[in-house]
Amino acid sequence: MNSNLDNNAHWIDRDLKVLWHPCTQMRDHPHPIPLLPIVAAQGCWLEDADGKRYLDAISSWWVTLFGHGHPAIAQAIAEQAAKLDHVLMAGFAHPPAIELAERLLKLVGAPMSRVFYAEAGSAAIEIALKLSFHYWRNMGEHRRKRFLVLDQGYHGETIGALSMTSVSLYRQAYGELLLEPLFAPSPDSRLAAAGESADDYAQRCAAALEQMLVEHEGEVCAVVLEPLVQCAGGMAMYPPNYLQRLRAICDRRKVHLIADEIAVGLGRTGALLACDHAGIRPDLLCIGKGLSGGTLPLAAVLAPEHIYDSFLGEYGSGKAFLHSHSYTGFAIGCAAALATLDLLETAMANGELRQRGEQLGAALAPLQQHPNARHLRRCGLIAAVDMTQADGSPFPAEQRRGLAVYRQALQRGVVLRPLGDTIYALPPLSISAEEIDVLARVALESLEAACA
Ligand SMILES: Cc1ncc(COP(=O)(O)O)c(C=O)c1O
What we know:
- The structure is a single chain.
- The protein is α/β, with parallel strands linked by helices and about 450 residues long.
- It is built from 14 helices and 16 strands.
- A hairpin with a 5-residue loop joins strand 8 and strand 9.
- It starts with 7 loop residues before the first helix and ends with a helix.
- Bound molecules: pyridoxal-5'-phosphate (PLP).
- The site of pyridoxal-5'-phosphate has 14 residues, from helix 5.
């Protein structure tokens, strides 16, 4: 039993006096949005200061890969922290950073041959944007200053990454501060015209994107996209043929393809990378979030040798990539990532990922029959459904039905945190069949209660 001094009310009171929470209108706390002080986490479960447990169906913002408190990852962190916590990476190196780079390159394969570390996904996006822009300068192509992104895309919140983000919720206050990318139509399968297949719609979007590159020939550095699932943009899914088409278009139009696999990479879609479903490799690959198993902030950009080579030159030539973050390649994070990759490789090899994805799909299938649910979709262990009025039209935004689902699910002991009125599940890859059933039951009950 917790004493009154460390229960939920106690921590909420202290929290609201000192903290400023991310992605939050602080006036919404503690009503209508509850604030939960979490004091422990194990496997797929979080525990609050009152001792109530919650199934973490969204992997704590999509980072937890093999559950909280995984003993192998915890041990790797503890051992590394005792041996070498951190050393600056300019002029110095250490075994975990080298071993992790070797391991990532082997897993991802050609043409990737270099790894540049970052701490957060947004920082990885900044790095990829700068690498692409700087590469073209190094190649004497000074007119290339723009990027092309997809409607509904999300790439982070720092100024460069936010510039590449289309979701207006995040952009709106900062529009005047941002770079101006070109926006191409989202291949989101839900946007296909009546009678048009998802594949045909995706092909149509790819053709429109190529036309934009033709109109801006020689001006674009790279196309930046989230492969297969536009996560923060509403778990919008699209078919792999779009990626194949884009790979060919980027080659034809001589622009880089930057794949932001920060959310979808490392097993979430059932494969190592979402790009694997299309059998393609980008020119620059960003990974993050689950890289450390969800324990420490670590991200990375993988690049091929010809991009790396273009940065070699005389001292003072302006070619070197002088980007630096204090914690670049920190040893404890790399050790956590190495332990995570052990788990991921095992899960991929024994078919667990595919099996869990299918279980999730089967458990959520009853949602399809619900009059307030549309577009049930799944890609690996990412699943989503849109909550609508019975006639299929959206609920008025001010009714905040998604928030109602969130509250209903919390009461039932599950963390579902809808994106607007899109309910989604993105659980740890290690979720059990029983936990999937809990998740699915609570999703249905919460949808029902929120629509009542
Ligand atoms: C696709 C994608 N890219 C980039 C980011 C930014 O990552 P971070 O929050 O680690 O900066 C996110 C975060 O949700 C993301 O989903």
